[in-house]
Amino acid sequence: MKKLLLLTFLFLTASGFSQNFYYGNVSEDGSPIPGARICVVNTQRCTTSDFDGNYTIEVKIGDQLKISAIGLESTIIRITSQNIQKNDQTVDPILSDDYIAKLKKPTDSIKISKPSGTFAFNLFDGFGEQYLMKINRDAKHFYSLKYKYEYNKLSFEASQELMVSSPIRMQKYQKTYAQGRSQNGELVYQSPETNEIFSWGPNVNSLEYSGNKSEYYPQGNIVNKTFGNGNALELYNPNDFFNNGMDNKYMLNTQIEGTKGNIMRINLTYKTGKISIPTSRNNEIAAFVKYSRNVSKLSKIETILSYDDFENNLTNSNFAVNKIVFANAVTPIHFDNNFASTLSNGLQRSYAQSENNPYYLLQNNVDKNKSKTISFNFNHKYTKDKNWNSASASFQSSEIKNTNGQSFYTAGIAAPNFNERKERFSNFSVSDVFNHTIDSRGFVETKIDFRFQERKLNRQYFTGFAAPIDFPDNSLSQNKFDISQQRFEVFYNANVSYTFRDILSYYEQLVLKANTNLNYSSTVKGKFMPNFLASAEIKDLFNESLSITVSQSYNQVEPSLQNNNLNFNSLRYNVSQFKELQNNLELITPKNAIATQEINTNLSLMYNFDYRWNFNFNFYNKTVDNLYVPSFNLNTINWSPDVNYKENGVEFEIQKTFDRRNLAYSFNLNFTHYKNKVTSLNNNQSSIPFAGFADVNKNYIAGQPLGVIVGNGYLRDNNQNIIIDNDGFPVEDAQPKILGNPNPDFVVGFFNSLKYKNFTLNLSFDWSQGGEMWNGTQQTLNYYGKSELTEQQRNISNYVFAGVTQSGAVNTKTVSFYDANLPVQQNRWTRYGIDGVAEDAIEDATYFRLNAVSLSYTNNPYFNYGNRISYTISLFVNNVFVLSKNKQAFSSNAMFNSLDSSGLEYFNAPMMRSFGSSLTIKF
């Protein structure tokens, strides 16, 4: 049975807390699989493998990657610092019975009435082997047998997968108070015409509809009771805005295998889906053709052609999703956004001119994405005796088209804008790999790879629209950004491994490995980048299944030409400017780039007990210099190698397998603990923000862990007592400070698989302990008076804040959280602005989650030769439940769907619980 070989390795740690650029390869029997889909489980971070099967994706330790390829079952791998740990899911290519079962079972008898021919074989032995396909008799009455391998084989596979996702851990909103504020000692309702943004008004039970209908309220304008028609207000739950997500996947595969080993495989896949935001949709069409044949007994050729077409009508390339969630969340509970999004005069229908209607943003959405990728690979393999050689040539071309912008009458936008972004990326490679086996104890392998890359980026900004009818096609001014980058690379690799046996006694073995690379790049400073790896492993120590491995590696890596993480644009804006966010700056890899350097030291122990228990322990230490980060300079941004840091950690894993007749159980329990610290910043910088906003962000600061959260807090005296102002409220500190560390103390994963006959049950748990996150959503909802917290606490009075006065005395002044005799801007929450005090928004990020449950049934055709059709039915649930201190925000639900912004929550798309089923039929 062929297996999908996942060659993957953790190579370079990059920006973000414990963030890594994970470099992997997907191949089958040594042949690369282009177009494989790789996604971080429970996120929208996805990528595809290139023509060499290579891929790069942003991850953090403890993440799980789901790898899917057309015609192949999916697998999930877990990210650790040292290696990949698979769960119990397997990755198998298309399999079928491949032949027609025309014979009876060998226990049956064949009756021959009289001798009628000549037999040159044992007839019943042929039946028993289960490979006999046909019996022929020629004109001379001589019988011959036709076996399975003498026929062309045709197999099919069809599958369909449906997944429905429902939002969970939703925000909790107040259900009592109307749009308005305090005036002259009373809580006064303010209509949309007043452009009131707050929900600090009177109780909705004191209001009713009048007989005067309007475009804002078709039931009648809202007035105080006794002035209306007696009809109570209709209330709307903001959480009803979200839809269930849905994903459908259809796949058809066929394989034709000839009698001489030539194989053609054709795979077609169609995917369609939508997220929780209304009107969203995405579509993907993929095709894959592979042909291989044996040229001779010693050589084989393979060709692979793949095509992928993907489109999405609601990307978050211009923060559209977060803005839509924001607009929905702050709307007063009695205002129906869905009734209409536009007024008769063409203006936006929202509850205040300075706020957006989420449906207006959807109807005027221009954030779209469309991408196409085509790749071709040719490979020739030659094997003789102890030598093996593979020569290949590959080409890949991709085109990505993005549009985004803000239309007329969008709140927070002074002038409409629109931009088109086109990126073309091509790659051509020729390589050769030679492997020589040394007397069954080792091998020597060399590889040389010539590669040419080209990236063309064109971006046009359109502004100065005269009228709504001109948007987005006719603008008065344009600003073009056009850049072309080329890179020529040569990779030379030498790899050797040799095993010394009986080093201490009869059982011990010493395995020495060395790997060295000398890479040339036309765009790196100095042109050459050396890399090496050396390891020593002692196996079967003390006559036990105990292994100890020590390894040391040094790597230099040049940043890629392609840098599509554009969410650093938000760093130019304060939280209060959220509605103004625009994504119009690009990161460009500089010419003569400095290579990022990484040194890794690993110590691993592996022990197998009774062939059922496996224990693995790994300690690692690494240092990274010249890590690339976004660096702002006035209105430009550079991709600059400015961060140096170190990290060390331990990983422990236990694997157990139990198998008895029809019942099998296995589990994998792994534990990860790590610490990291920025050792220095280049160019005399004291801190470098890399994700978030200008006033609340994640930072690189010398002497601090990676990605500490920085923002404003309360002013304190030398004894860390909060200073209270004359009004009795804490004083905000104008100077930003370190508020939290998003890195967890440890991460635990627990994977289980139970098999009984034809049923398989899989369960996956994960536990992340410690670390902090910033919940800015809660702060802003408090400011608007929309949160459940303000509903519960707005009537609190005679409250004394713990702290000292500015003179140093213990504070004794009592306050009311919301005093109707004072302006609304002076209440407990609005006095600190829309973002509040960031210190109040820091929360514990600990969580425990039942990550996934799946149950599958297969008719197991491999043990039933008379059955030509096999099928598998699966049911699964993802994000079954999550336990954490905060019931709404979730630390792994990254802002803007960027790993850099993990640990930041500001009107992120809701977390989803997914239910699904799949059916696969093979014949």
Automatic annotation (TrEMBL):
Pfam families per the UniProt record, alphabetical: CarbopepD_reg_2
Keyword terms, alphabetized: Signal
Signal peptide as annotated in the record: 1-20
Protein's UniProt keywords contain Transmembrane: no
Protein name (record): TonB-dependent receptor
The organism's taxonomic lineage, starting at the top: Bacteria, Pseudomonadati, Bacteroidota, Flavobacteriia, Flavobacteriales
